[in-house]
Design brief:
Radius of gyration: 19 Å
Strand content: 15-25%
Number of strands: 11
CATH topology: Arginase, Chain A
Largest sheet: 9 strands, mixed
CATH class: Alpha Beta
Shape: globular
Amino acid sequence: MESEDKQIARVKANGEAFTCASWMMPLIPDQIRLHVSQSQLFSGSEKPFSEARFVVFGVPFDKTSTYRAGSKFAPSAIREASLNIETYSLRSKFDLEDIGICDIGDLHVTDAVDETMRRLSAVESDILSSSKIPVALGGEHTISYGTIRSFPKDIGIVCFDAHADMRDEYMGEKLMHATFLRRVIDMVGPEKIVHIGLRALCKEELGFMKKNHIQSFPMNDLKRHDVKENTRIVRRALSDFGKLYVTVDVDALDPGFAPGVGNPEPDGMWPDLFLSIITGICDERLAGLDLVELSPEHDTGITAPLAAKAIFEAICATEAARSKAG
């Protein structure tokens, strides 16, 4: 197989377009290419895999959705939005264009949850073994189970979500979007979870959270403080974690700001609070990130750009913190 350096030299010599479709896919490790196909690039990113620090990939899976399905179309919608917003972060004073990002395409999903999770974990593990930070674009929240199980069990999990997602089972299923966090807790333990934006849960979940002392910052508490204080409080709650995984369900936002979601829940986060906490917690400890539950067919054109913006800000904040840390 032609080496990466020779491929890049050939592309430059021949004046070929630097797009993933024409030259980057061969540079992605074979074990990853087995499970993904390239499409539109997130933020127009064109770094080869070996030079990237962040590796973006889509997971177009919404098999267990129970209300407004359609999150399988979200990776494309997020990519399209990402091409049409500015890349400089005023919050972090960092430009996304200066950060190595490679979009490897979309995971080859199936209707079988277990098989899709297996493929997802395989890709996530290969990205991690290459010392890169995976960024998964869902898809429904079930995918976070597949990504998180690829990480060491001592990682701290930060979950932005309107819902608890801690039922033991729902509609006869043990693993689906309404139970994914319960399954994650089964893997890593309740002490590794920090939940942000909660405002919808059942009695079973409430009892489980109290019994297991799940650390949560529900909307009722977040509304008592200003944005800076909330960010400080959440950061303090994460201070003991050496590495962080952040999973963002877009329904953590109020549907007035993010209507295009699978399960909208009123009385949610507003963009400044949401983005401030994300940039406040995404630092040199960030090991992985996903964003899920965007349902484009229910959007009015504002949810996908906000989702793309959240990913931009998370990546920029991480790199800014890493630069400061040396």
